[in-house]
Amino acid sequence: MKKILLSICLAVSVFALSGCADFLEREPYGRDTSWKTDEDVMKAVYALYYFVSPHWSEEICGRGHMWFECASDNVLIGRDRPAVDEIREFRMSPSNDQDVKNVWGVMYQNVAKANNIIKLVPDLNITESVKKLALGTAYFFRGFSMLWMVPYYGDDTNGGIPIILDTTPMDEMDSPRPDHVLKNYDQIIADFRRAAEELPYFSELSTSQYGLPHKAAAWAFAARAALYAAQYDASYYNTVIEMCDLVMGMTGADKRSLYIDPNNKSKSFANLWRKEQNHSSEYIFSLEGDATNGARYHGVTFVNAGWGLYNTWGYYTPSLELWNAFEEGDQRREATILYPGNHVKFMGRDITFGGYCTDGSISSYTTSHVSAGLINQKFISPWETGSYTEVSSQRDKLWNTLNVCLMRYADVLLMKAEALIWTQGEGNGEAKELLGDIRERAGLSRENAATKAELQNQRRCELAFEFQPSRHIDVIRWGLAQEYYAKPLHSVVSKMVDGQIKTEEVEVYPGRTFNPTYNKVFPIPETAFNGTVNLKQNKGY
Question: What is the pTM for the complete model shown?
Fold first, then answer.
């Protein structure tokens, strides 16, 4: 599917528009269309992936909403970036020029494309299986595109964000914001439910179709939407459990499980992040990796300029607080974070990481910014050998063969465990087993008390630095942001002592003031207001 996506996405570059006004100017849904054949319809389906095409692979799927993640307690910026300082300090303006501003327009364009498919395809004389796949994919991406935006812009204070459906008349597309974000989540969950009705199981997709959504993906994303909704109404936890049970109950070729390396169990988590496991038993949904096209996120997160070996970008570095969140013996810690003195394979070399050194005692393989004393290495496997079959030969493009994971089975287990603990109380027996599975794969004892604190820390450690879900959203929905963000964040400074690399803790960012009345959401980008009357900005911005 990857080569098809590249050609299709380039062909539909007309859709690369920004802002709410752009989709308002589209022709009414249901006009005459040139779609006549199965192939025509599948081209429209693949156009739903335009957000991960070369045109947007940096701004949407390389950085994009990850700038918001810099507001979390897991992530330091990694470089000087004043506009990102505004984000992490909760003083972002609607005119902030970081590329996250483009997410709103691109995702609403995806909603418009999905609506056209939903409106037009049912009446076409095409193969029934293609019709079902097209409709299922359209419903999936309508929900998916909204879920990409809603948690960052909608809440109980400001309301949701505009809901535009295939049934929305043209003269109502400039619709007011819903009075509560739960209306968004209800629509998103409904879209994923409908998608699951139409979509095949993953086992029914051909290998050339890998990357298309399937039933388990729709159920799992419905669970995520319900999890986010539960911060406003705890009854949504019942939907989380329902959707997770559907995923967990699959059998045969579709049975999902945590990936366990058959040759080295202790490397299971580290080796999960290799292209050979792109579609392992843990896979649910990803952006497909490719060395000539695809999301750039993995290379964005490694050392700035890659020590002259490859132009990785050095953003989104780990805080010392994240390092300390891992228990001793947790195999996920070193699989996720490169610590000074530890080794990494990069572009055919075995490198001893020097960290951030200020006294000149370490002269090689260091970093140049105090917030880059620790480095995210979770996704660096494509760069190990230096082969340009694994990474782009255009050394600043960062395309690579590792999928960008957006949903995996571990997340499903954690979502269900959370729903059980929050509804049935700490110590719930099933939640203990689910958390035990997560802990055991990490090399820890299965023993746990299924407390809220344990669940929160397992989500933090298991899902750290994944493009989705968001630690920042988790901290907000748990009501912990005001407390957590008041604390300073740290990294380490390195120096050579008696031939060994030693580190000292250093404060990088002071504590921040988080106002729960306003700062649960970010400002809607100013470009979204072009041509609109009814769209209102979030309060406090």
Answer: 0.95
